[in-house]
Write a structure and sequence with these properties.
Elements: E1 2-10, H1 16-32, E2 36-43, E3 56-62, H2 65-71, H3 75-85, E4 89-98
Length: about 100
């Protein structure tokens, strides 16, 4: 299994309604892209204060590296990026690991 962790720095002024739409779009990828076992997303609520400005997270669990590699260029993933991520995000950090 591959864990795909993505952290976002949302642009100033991003509204709660925009965040809800972003979450819905991200979660829908789980039904539309093969090889996704689970997907979750949300706003940071850690009390530690160590998020370094990254205030939104996405966690995708893939069956294997081949599923992850198929997700990256998938048209649904690219469309979500163009329509929902890029308009709201200043910076992104990605980390994948095998479990």
């Amino acid at each position: 299994m591959i864990e795909h962790l993505v952290l976002f720095k949302l642009k100033a002024g991003t509204t709660p309604a925009q965040i809800e739409t972003l979450i819905a779009a991200l979660l829908q990828m789980g039904d539309q892209i093969p090889g996704i076992l689970d997907i979750s997303a949300g706003v940071n609520n850690s009390p530690e204060g160590k998020n370094q400005g990254f205030d939104f997270g996405l966690l995708v669990q893939f069956e294997d590296a081949a599923a992850r590699d198929g997700y990256l260029p998938h048209p649904v993933h690219r469309q979500v990026g163009a329509d929902h991520i890029r308009p709201l995000v200043d910076d992104v950090l990605v980390l994948d690991f095998e479990r």
